[in-house]
Design a protein that fits this description.
The protein is built from 7 helices and 5 strands, in the order αββαβαααβαβα. It is of the alpha/beta class.
Length: 151
């Protein structure tokens, strides 16, 4: 995979708009993390009907966990979720254990995301995995359009 470097041609403009990028060192390249305000705005565009106990959310390139934490926040305040889980702690536990999933491009991004979503690195079974876990499946998935359903 080719390493690419993001060059911001308008750094002053981006800073004025509050769209400064956050860089996470990913070895030989740098990952650009979506600013929190943009992630929250994107999640806000989703219809309220998707924020129910039966929904599951997957961030396929989880770098900081910002999309998943924005989704978690929206789920915590969802009318359907509050009706199903009136207790805040029970609702939080259900959301983090059953609804939020992520695939991180590397171990460092996985660590950031796990910390953001779960509030700690000490998680028995985090649902945010490093893409390297899937290395053995890459060729099969890309060539045969298989979906990985278990790991």
């Amino acid at each position: 995979m080719e390493n690419k470097v993001y060059i911001d041609p308008y750094p002053k403009t981006m800073k004025m708009l509050g769209l400064e990028r956050i860089n996470i060192d990913c070895g030989n390249n740098t990952s650009i993390v979506t600013p929190a305000n943009i992630a929250k705005d994107m999640v806000a565009l989703l219809p309220d009907e998707v924020f129910i106990p039966e929904s599951k959310f997957l961030d396929i390139c989880c770098k900081s966990g910002i999309f998943l934490t924005s989704i978690r926040e929206k789920l915590m305040n969802s009318k359907a979720m509050i009706e199903s889980f009136p207790d805040d702690k029970e609702r939080y536990k259900y959301i983090t254990n059953n609804q939020l999933y992520g695939i991180a491009p590397n171990g460092q991004c996985q660590m950031y995301s796990v910390r953001a979503v779960y509030g700690t690195l000490k998680v028995d079974n985090p649902h945010i995995l490093c893409f390297g876990v899937f290395d053995q499946y890459k060729t099969a998935c890309l060539n045969n359009n298989h979906m990985i359903t278990s790991y």
